[in-house]
Design brief:
Residues 16-308 form the Polysaccharide pyruvyl transferase domain. InterPro entries: Polysacch_pyruvyl_Trfase. By secondary structure, the protein is an alpha/beta fold. The protein has two domains: 5-200 and 354-367, Rossmann fold; 203-343, 3-Layer(aba) Sandwich (Rossmann fold). The chain is 39% helix and 14% strand. It has 14 helices and twelve strands. The chain has helices at residues 17-32, 45-50, 60-68, 73-90, 100-110, 156-159, 163-166, 180-187, 203-207, 232-246, 272-281, 290-298, 316-323, 345-367; strands spanning 5-9, 36-39, 114-117, 143-149, 171-174, 192-193, 221-226, 249-254, 266-267, 284-287, 303-307, 330-332. The strands form two sheets. Strands 2-1-3-4-5-6 form a six-stranded parallel beta sheet, with helices on both faces. Strands 9-8-7-10-11-12 form a six-stranded parallel beta sheet, sandwiched between helices. The radius of gyration is 20 Å and the shape is globular. The relative contact order is 0.13.
Length: 374
C-alpha cells in the first residue's frame, strides 16, 4: 500500500475502552502499511454533551445525578484525563468539526485518497452519539470505505433511510454476520466480513503499552470487565463463583457509577493504557463486552464471555467466538453453565491471524480501488 492519505471517522471521542482502542488500532495499522492516516475529529454538539464528565442538561434529575456522583469526582476527572491524553498522544487527528458542512470542507481541503467510516457502531442510529457524519453524506473525490461497520441491533427499517448515502460506499466491511442482509440492502451490493480493527495489530503491538514490571504482575486476579448495568448483581455472583473455582481475587472494571462502585475492588478511573495492563496481567477474564472478549483472546487469557440477553440480535460476541472456535466459552447470564475446559490458544491464534489477514487484504484493495466488491 503506497503512501496514500486516508481519513478515518469513528467514535474516537467516546469514554469507552473499545471505541478508543479500535480507533487507535485502525489508524496505527494503516500507518504501519505506509498510509498517511489521520482521524477526522468530528464531534457534534450532542456528542460533546453526552461525553461530558458532568450532566449539563437542565432539570432537577440531572442536578441530583451530579450530586450523587460527587464522591467519584476525582476518579471521573482522572479517567477523563486518561482518555484525553491517550487520544492526544496516540491518535493523530484533525481540528474539530461539528457538522456535515465542516466535515466536507475538511475532506475537500485535505484531498484524501480514501475516507473510512468505522469501526464500531457507526451505522447504528439508536446510539446516543450517532450522527449522519458517519455516512459522509456529501460528494467527494475520495473513495468511501466502511470498515467493520456495525448497526448494533438496528432493523432494516431503522437504517433504510440512509440508503442514499450507503450506496456511495463501493467497499463495505461488516463486523457482524447477522446484519449482512440488512447492510447489503442499503448499500445495493455485497459486503464482506471483516474483523474488528484491534485484531489488525499483533499481541506484540499491544504489549508496547504494557508495563511488565507492574505490581499487577504479582497479583492473581480475575478481571471482570462489565458493560451492562441491569444484571450487575447477577454477574457479580457469577464472577465470585469463577474466582472461587480458580482461587483468584476479583478486580472489576464497570462502565457505570452506581452503589456497587463504592466497593474497594471496583476500578472506576482506568485510562485506556491502564485497561490494557489490567487485561494483560489478569489470570483470567470474565466479560459481557465485545472488546473485553476480543482482548482476552489477543492476550491468550482463560476467558468467560457472558451474554446477558439470549434473545438479543446483537451477535458480535457470538460471531467472533464462533469464528475462532471458542463458542464454548459463551454462557448466558440467566442460566449460567460456566465452561470448565481450558483454552488451547495454539489452535485459536492461527484462526485469528487468518481472519485478520483477509481483512487486511480487503482494506488494501479498497484503498487501491481494486473493485473486489460487486
Amino acid at each position: 500500500m503506497s503512501k496514500e492519505k486516508v481519513g478515518i471517522i469513528t467514535y474516537h471521542f467516546a469514554r469507552n475502552y473499545g471505541a478508543v482502542l479500535q480507533c487507535y488500532a485502525l489508524r496505527k495499522y494503516l500507518e504501519k502499511v505506509g498510509c498517511e492516516a489521520t482521524v477526522l475529529n468530528a464531534i457534534s454538539r450532542v456528542q460533546e454533551k453526552n461525553n461530558s464528565v458532568f450532566h449539563k442538561k437542565d432539570g432537577i434529575k440531572n442536578v441530583i445525578v451530579n450530586v450523587v456522583l460527587l464522591p467519584f469526582v476525582k476518579q471521573r476527572l482522572r479517567k477523563e484525563k486518561g482518555f484525553a491524553d491517550f487520544v492526544e498522544n496516540y491518535i493523530p487527528h484533525t481540528e474539530k468539526v461539528v457538522n456535515v458542512e465542516q466535515l466536507k470542507a475538511l475532506v475537500d481541503r485535505e484531498q484524501y485518497r480514501a475516507i473510512i467510516t468505522g469501526s464500531d457502531q457507526v451505522w447504528n442510529p439508536h446510539i446516543f452519539d450517532f450522527d449522519e457524519m458517519f455516512f459522509f453524506p456529501f460528494e467527494t473525490k475520495a473513495i468511501k470505505i466502511g470498515y467493520s461497520v456495525s448497526i448494533g441491533e438496528s432493523s432494516l427499517e431503522d437504517i433504510r433511510g440512509y440508503s442514499k448515502y450507503a450506496k456511495d460506499f463501493p467497499y463495505v466491511g461488516l463486523r457482524e454476520k447477522g446484519a449482512k442482509e440488512k447492510v447489503e440492502a442499503i448499500c445495493g451490493h455485497s459486503v464482506v466480513d471483516t474483523v474488528d480493527p484491534v485484531l489488525l495489530l499483533t499481541r506484540e503491538d499491544w504489549e508496547t503499552f504494557v508495563d511488565k514490571s507492574s505490581p499487577l504482575a504479582k497479583e492473581k486476579y480475575l478481571l471482570c470487565y462489565l458493560i451492562d448495568k441491569k444484571p450487575i448483581k447477577r454477574n457479580m455472583a457469577i464472577a465470585e463463583q469463577i474466582a472461587k473455582e480458580r482461587g483468584l481475587k476479583i478486580k472489576y472494571i464497570w462502565m457505570h457509577l452506581e452503589k456497587e462502585s463504592f466497593r474497594g475492588n471496583f476500578i472506576n478511573d482506568a485510562s485506556p493504557v491502564e485497561f490494557l495492563n489490567y487485561m494483560y496481567h489478569a489470570s483470567a477474564v470474565m466479560t459481557d463486552g465485545y472488546h473485553g472478549t476480543v482482548f482476552s483472546t489477543i492476550f491468550n487469557k482463560p476467558m468467560y464471555s457472558v451474554i446477558n440477553n439470549r434473545q438479543s440480535t446483537d451477535s458480535r460476541i457470538r460471531d467472533y467466538l464462533t469464528l475462532i472456535g471458542l463458542e464454548s466459552r459463551i454462557f448466558y447470564g440467566d442460566a449460567p453453565v460456566i465452561p470448565k475446559e481450558e483454552i488451547d490458544y495454539t489452535e485459536v491464534d492461527p484462526k485469528i491471524r487468518s481472519a485478520a489477514d483477509a481483512s487486511k487484504a480487503f482494506l488494501q484493495s479498497a484503498i487501491d480501488n481494486e473493485r473486489v466488491v460487486k
